[in-house]
Amino acid sequence: MNRDFIQTLQQKLRQPLPGREAQFKMAHITRRMYVSAPPESRKAGVLASFFWKNEDWHLVFIERNQNDKDHHGGQIGFPGGKFEPDDETLLNTALREAEEEVGIVREDVKVLGHLTNLYIPVSNFEVHPFVGFLEYQPVYRLQEEEVSSVLEVPFSHFRNSAEKRTTNVRIGKHLTLNNVPYFDVQGKILWGATAMILSELMEIIGHDL
Predict the structure, then answer these.
(1) pTM across the whole model
(2) Beta strands per DSSP E along 21-124
(3) What is the pLDDT of residues 170-189, one digit of tens each?
(4) Is 154 within 8 Å of 56 (Cβ atoms)?
């Protein structure tokens, strides 16, 4: 297990973050119109969990079930969800949701830091991303009413420029976004807020790890 990666990442997360400009590198051009969350926005926490497998650090993603009532149904994202009063903090939200959605034991997550919050206009959520790691490869228990599958993706995958592409994404019955940046992940499209969060994480890590 390459602990230098984790130690250096933790140190970098304590420094000023690259922020929205790093996020915008994997965002549709229209996203620059929606920068700050309005006062009435809802809050959510998500967790980017690293673990060591096959001589590489991997990240845990979920594929959400198709749901006409969920603006993010069918999409790939980090485990996470909306803040509940009992959570007390958004970090607790991210840890609770990761445990509920895929069975990651919250007490086993070593929290390294947080990334820049991100407003998602279509669902009116301000998302707060947190970064952590596990000492072992997780064993998953899916919340089947929300999650259809788990994807384990080597972080090195996202450094491959060939996996960064653009496509047209239909986001409603009458609306299609053209030339949307995305990562190809096992033949699936990873785009939107998750791609933007990953973009900042990649910039923080850089090419020296």
Answers:
(1) 0.92
(2) 42-53, 56-64, 76-77, 80-82, 110-114, 118-120
(3) 876 778 899 999 999 999 99
(4) yes
